[in-house]
Write a structure and sequence with these properties.
The protein is mostly helical. 75% of the residues lie in helices and 0% in strands. 21% of the residues are buried. The mean pLDDT is 94.
Length: 181
């Protein structure tokens, strides 16, 4: 909750990746707030008041995941909406002639997107940004498992991360004052 709130306000791309991780954590505990409290949240260091807010937040996530039929896979509507907001801005930036740096980054990442889609048949129906987020999230999972990532893949991930970071910066700027697209 604390991290999610901070990321939502400072980095939309990291917020989405964090929330995907939260979804997986909640799934690991069967969308059961009692299991989460007993096995996961018990290790959190927070005041009683803050802990109540954290438990309530996770309970809400559990409930939403149950209601949306996401016990085994998929993403919450709130997370799909966050990604859709980024996709809308991404498409607007690509259409505009006022953001050549962003277009350059995008065309640098495009071959990676094509390659990733060719390796996963189901990825061909994903949006380009979803493919990018899936790549970063997959790398996160590999790192958590202490698995090696090839230098070529690390380079691709760095370029994808740079693109999504720039998109996130534009998103936040656009929220403060609309960009001249």
């Amino acid at each position: 909750m604390i991290i999610a709130d901070r990321l939502r306000a400072t980095n939309r791309a990291e917020y989405i990746l964090y929330m995907w991780q939260v979804e997986d954590i909640v799934r690991a505990y069967h969308c059961d707030i009692d299991e989460l409290k007993h096995h996961y949240l018990k290790d959190f260091q927070a005041s009683d008041e803050k802990m109540q807010a954290i438990v309530s937040w996770y309970a809400d996530i559990c409930q939403m995941m149950k209601e949306e039929g996401l016990r085994e896979k998929g993403h919450l509507q709130i997370n799909r909406n966050a990604l859709a907001d980024l996709e809308e801005l991404h498409n607007e930036l690509l259409k505009s002639d006022k953001f050549p740096y962003y277009k350059k980054m995008y065309y640098k990442v495009l071959p990676y997107i094509v390659e990733l889609r060719s390796k996963q048949p189901t990825a061909s129906t994903d949006t380009e940004l979803t493919t990018c987020f899936n790549a970063l999230y997959g790398a996160l999972l590999l790192r958590l498992q202490s698995k090696q990532i090839s230098p070529e893949t690390q380079k691709a991930l760095q370029d994808i991360s740079t693109l999504l970071g720039q998109l996130s910066d534009y998103y936040l700027s656009n929220k403060k004052e609309p960009l001249d697209l």
